[in-house]
Structures are given as C-alpha cells and as structure tokens.
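subagent[fold] <- orchestrator: predict structure for attached chain, return tokens only, no commentary.
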Amino acid sequence: MLEARAYRQAGYFTAAQALDVGYTYQAQKYHADTGNWVRIDRGLFRLPNWPSEPDDEYVLWMLWSRNLGVFSHETALSIHGLSDVDPPRIHLTVPPTFRAKDPMVVTHAQVLEGEDIEQRKAWQVTTPVRTLADVSGSDLSQEHVDRAVGDALERGLTSRRSILRRSADLSDRAALRLERALAAAEERHGDI
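subagent[fold] -> orchestrator:
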C-alpha cells in the first residue's frame, strides 16, 4: 500500500502517509536505519535507488502542501515555459483553509475549478489560460505578461478567444493587462 502511493509520488512518501498505512514511528526509524527507506528530510522518505528526475522539486512541494497545492502564477509560467520568468519562490494555489507556511513558498488562497488544473505525474499545475489570468492580476510586469501571452498563443497552448473569455471574469486591471498583452502579441506576430 505504501509502495503504491510512493510510486505515484516519484518514490517519495511522508511519515504521516506511512503512519496512515500502519508503520509506527519506531518502524519508520527501523526502515530508515536499515536502508529500506532513504530519509530525505524530517518526516520525508524515498524508496531506495529511485532515480532522480527534473520534477522532483515539484513532488516535494506537493507533499509539503499535503497534496492540496496547485502550482500557479509565476511558477506555472516557468513550468509551461511562458515568458522568461524565473521565480525565486514557489507559487502554490491552496484552499482557503490551508495554513502551512514556508519562506520559499508564496501561497494564494483560492478554490480552483477542475478545468483550471492540469495533472502531471505526481503534481498539478494551473492550465496556461488560468496561469495567464492569475499573473495578469499579480504584480508581475506588463512586459512579462505580454511575453507570456505571446508565447502561449504562438505555441498553441490557448487562443485569443479563450483569453478574452477568461478576462471577462477578472478585475478591470487584470482584464486590461490581458487585452494589452493580446494587442502586443498581434503587433509582434500578426493575427495568432
């Protein structure tokens, strides 16, 4: 049972998850001490000999959020390869009741709809159009929003119509920023 969960989480699992399936803290210490499990951090383990993957960082932050977080905003731009944003902190959208804090994480309290979420192997990220909506309402520079919208249109990740439809539900400021970005994309690339 624990191994099946670990396989879905790139080989990682938490002490709480091990406890849920019957491993006492004493048993967890035994498995870590004997090499059956690799201790990654306090309360975090990995199956031995599991290969490292580029997405491991995202799996670890999902476990930190107890699988409640969805990568969003600038982190989602980076994941989707939109603009050249390289955020210094992880952005996660979490339920309003989520209370954990970490200096490396910016949390955005909001309930996301299913159509706004893309499932990756062991973690989730907001869709490109949701990501564009999120960053248009943030403090990200207009230049980065312009580039992100242009990149998304150019790569066929969304359409002008989808962006305009989404902007109807946003604040006036965010909608205006998306409209400016669409105009900049048209000016740069013609009709996309």
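orchestrator: received. Logging for downstream: The first strand starts at residue 12 and ends at 14. Residues 19 and 25 are 7 Å apart (CA to CA).
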